[in-house]
Predict the 3D structure of the following.
Amino acid sequence: RPQVARSLRFVPVAGLATPRATALLRLFDACLRDHLEPASADAALAGVDVGLEASLEGWKVSVAGYGDSGLRYAAHVAARLRDFSVTPARFEALKEATLRGLRSYVQTEAYTQARNRRDALMREHLFLPPETLAATEAATWADVQAFGREFFARGAIEAVVHGHLAPEAAVTAVRGRARAIGAAPAPAGELLRRRHLQLQPGENVVDSGPVEGVNSAFVRDYLLPDDTPEVRAAAAVLGNFFADPFFSELRTKQQLGYIVGGGAGGSLRHRYFAFVIQSSTHAPAELQRRAAGGIA
């Protein structure tokens, strides 16, 4: 039976990169998923794999299935992005669920908070949950609807279609979804693209902050010089090489805590080695000292 996999991503303009926009997009995504639940359930019964993702860097729908079933689901979604609705009671329920998650963020594991702070520090457009709490509390359904129209007003569409579909049919399908979304094209320089903090060789950035609970955490990254295939391959090999000794020394022998790890990571075309320790018995300064010994 013929199969087709398709991924379509809408990239908005950079002017939307604010904490308020992050809050409204989170609510928009929750409401859209709720609205699409019946169609998504039907798609699953028809053997269609469906994925929805939403961030300031873009909204994405991915489908894979037999025949044109996935394409029809994607068309259904694209046609409803601007004009779907939820009842006031349902919106308040979804908003309350979102707020519970945001308010409980301070109870998140210390190492997760440390990694999130790292990401927010290194990326230009990334806002942590506490930064979006006030905007979420103040948001109304009218605000979310207006934001959805603004988000999809201007931008660019990126798509990949793979499988038993002729190139001409794939292009026609993508153009049809683009017309349904109805966004005006934006120049490449105005699109919201991930950008990282640029560090000079030998330059270090240190960040610290309080967390609730008994745990403390230490995270260290070593940024690699480039993202060539050779560097990626070497990083993967070296990451596997030092991951076990780092864990064995600091977790098994020194018993600093249950969360100990090291390896290679990346963000788009930025590659790095990362080390993390979470402990309920040692302060971050001591974790830093112990980690330096394990890394050396």
